[in-house]
Amino acid sequence: MIQLSSKMERLTPYVPGEQPQDRSYLKLNTNENPYPPGPAVEKVLQHFDTEALRRYPDPESLRLRKALAHHLKLQTDNVFVGNGSDEVLAFAFYAFFDSRRGPLLFPSHTYSFYPVYCDLYGIESRPVPLEKDFSIDLEAYLQTDSCGVIIANPNAPTGIHLQLDPIADFLSRYPDDRVVIIDEAYIEFGGQSAVALLEQHNNLMVIRTYSKSMSLAGTRIGYALADKTLIAAVNSVKNSFNSYPLDALAQQIGEAAIGEYGYHEKACQRIIANREKLRAGLSDAGWQVLPSAANFVFARCPGQTGAMVYQRLKDEGILVRQFNQDQIRDFVRITIGTQDQMDRLLATIGRLWPR
Ligand SMILES: *Cc1c(COP(=O)(O)O)cnc(C)c1O
Questions:
Q1: Contact, 149 vs 182, CB < 8 A?
Q2: Which segments in the chain show pLDDT lower than 70?
Q3: 3 conformational bin, left if phi > 0, alpha if psi -120 to 50, beta if neither
Q4: What pLDDT shows up at residue 18?
Q5: Pocket of ligand 1, candidates 183, 187, 188: which has the most ligand atoms within 8 Å of its Cβ, to mutate?
Q6: Confidence (pLDDT) at 47
Q7: Helix (H, G, I), strand (E, B), or coil: what is residue 183?
Q8: What is the model's pLDDT at position 1?
Q9: Ligand 1: residues within 6 Å at CB?
Q10: What pLDDT shows up at residue 270?
Q11: H helix intervals, 122-260
């Protein structure tokens, strides 16, 4: 028997949504963007100089960070970039959360990578129950024996969005020597960003991704925005793990994509419109749909288990995501696609579960 490290015993790996290779599904299970990346990204791919692949990439991703800082009206040293926001989150957990000062707080139902990183690093966590309507009430996070807080806003898999006022109020009352992370993976689909609060709160870190709003999940670009002290800490973790998290092509693509932000904004607007139509269609079909400010909806078909809805849609060639967890077992998370895709979904639902 090969001896594994004792740390392996506490690992509970994240389970990503299916990426089936066997047949072509209508994939509404991993919150990918249905629209392609923009023309500036195409151009980078057409003109990319392979000489750049011979050399190591810029370890600091300086041009990309400058472009992001310019776009967000921040300084370059307020920006960190990593290989997907999952990696940025991993570095941030390592840098900031230490349960000798108390457990890390996050919602009982949220992005399932948070507990995975806690297991990986041996960080104790304390899940805070969601409200009855599945929303987050930050009053419950004012626990001074905690080592930090992380919330996704909009939250996953509910899609429910928390306004900026309660976040600002929370930050003014939570101990300012502990880090609060807001994961804004879905903020571009109608939410209010906490970037506006960075200037007043140097214990706040906002983490974002190119995967959803920028149609670039395959390129793996995530970024963190915070006071430069926090950015420097995350950078130290990066340089203790992998100095070159973003390859040369990803850095150029990231810069090009932020330069055509208007293109992505329009795509997000279309997704918002498709979402609202899907929401109306599901409600007409008798489904319960939580209010969403993300590129997905969380919904349930009365009288059906979530597992059944998932399986019957899969049999029809439509993939959605179901989470086998208390309270949300009977819901499915449906990624917003194109209008045609949403029409096909609604037609299938109408046929499978007529009113
Ligand atoms: C998708 C997602 C991420 C990860 O995004 P990547 O940048 O693709 O790693 C992080 N947080 C939440 C809440 C997400 O839904």
A1: no
A2: none
A3: beta
A4: 80
A5: 183
A6: 96
A7: strand
A8: 87
A9: 84-86, 111, 152, 156, 183, 185, 209, 211, 217, 222
A10: 98
A11: 164-173, 228-238, 248-259
